[in-house]
Amino acid sequence: MDRLDELLNVAGDLLERVDTVLSEVGAPGGHDVWRELRRVRLLPGDAARAVAALHPTAILDAVPELRADARVYADLADALPLASGWTGEAAEAYETARRTAAEHLNGGPDSLGHRMSATADLADSLTGWMLRTRAGVAAVLAGAMLSTEAIVLTAGDHPPSDQADAAAAIGARLLRAAADAYDEAEDLLTGSADLQTPLSV
After folding, report:
1. Angle 70-201-108 (CA atoms, 0-180°, nearest 5)?
2. What superkingdom does the record give (predicted)?
3. Is there a contact between 188 and 129 (Cβ–Cβ < 8 Å)?
4. How crowded is residue 167: how many other Cβ atoms within 10 Å of its Cβ?
5. Is 170 exposed, middle or buried (0-12, 13-18, 19+ CB in 10 A)?
6. pTM score of the predicted model
């Protein structure tokens, strides 16, 4: 359990209140929260819980195995015996097949070894992204809990317009943190587009 999990346990009522006010009362026209709602397409509480559902450990645990597989492919490519001691068409055909197999195992960007290494690199990047995203949303949530907007939403009988302003302010900050983080993730995945291309056999 990290800071985000701890804060969500404490901030459940506040997030529920933010979501309820935005759903039932709305937000001021032209407020930033509308733009962020369009970006995320989730209410602030749901967005915070979606970030909390990111589990970096599950991905991080797969990295050593991916790197080990990449080394296995490299070792297999190196272990393919040369056509030494024999000549002729059969030897030439074998050498052609050996080079092709070695390149497929651990050659250029489309080789199995390169794909495994690139996948491990992506997993490392996604793990870092998840940790940063969780920490970022936790920081915003901690600030929201100590804000005057939180007091307006959870204490006393404030006018609906004041509650709408408060919910919009907290919601915009939380949604912006989530949206910016997911934009970063999209950039990471776009940068690894070569992994989405099927290997040629």
Report:
1. 45
2. Bacteria
3. yes
4. 29
5. buried
6. 0.82
